[in-house]
Amino acid sequence: MIQFSKGELVPLTDTLINEIYYWKYEEPMQAAKKWNGPYIKEPHMQKTTFLQETKQNRFIYPNVEGTLAIIIDGRFIGTVGSYWVDKQTNWLEIGIVIYDSDYWESGIGSEVFQCWVDYLFGNDFIHRLGISTWSGNVRMIKLALKVGMQEEARIRQARQVNDQYYDAIKMGILKSEWMNN
């Protein structure tokens, strides 16, 4: 468990995985999907399969959680997550999704994302962290800059959202840069 000023980041339980499933597949508005990879056509997954796969992929390394739930006042609002780009070079991609739009623009995302970066870099095996987003997701780009990431690649007009082209953005930070901040 990781504490932050307004709540905590906690490991996933079956109840929390069901919450994630609701926000990801059942919640009618799907507001977060408008920003979090809207160009990715995500197939619908059965709840039992989602539960199994999420539990199976719980750790990115022994005893190191790959996803944590964001909890405020006992309420689930989103997740921070990670996946390997290249395990041999200790390179992870990370992200944050705040599903509940009532918490957008509140500063929680900045604090939580910094906690997530600190948690991951607190492990000896991580060499670099990165994000992938699109140029229309200005909040994610600003968030990555706040935690010390820099733009490493911009692939022009590689993403299409609502029939409009956007650049694909790659940002990252090395552990040595994080240690010097």
TrEMBL record:
<protein>
    <submittedName>
        <fullName>Acetyltransferase</fullName>
    </submittedName>
</protein>
<keyword id="KW-0808">Transferase</keyword>
<dbReference type="GO" id="GO:0016747">
    <property type="term" value="F:acyltransferase activity, transferring groups other than amino-acyl groups"/>
</dbReference>
<feature type="domain" description="N-acetyltransferase">
    <location>
        <begin position="7"/>
        <end position="172"/>
    </location>
</feature>
<dbReference type="InterPro" id="IPR016181">
    <property type="entry name" value="Acyl_CoA_acyltransferase"/>
</dbReference>
<dbReference type="Pfam" id="PF13302">
    <property type="entry name" value="Acetyltransf_3"/>
</dbReference>
<dbReference type="InterPro" id="IPR000182">
    <property type="entry name" value="GNAT_dom"/>
</dbReference>
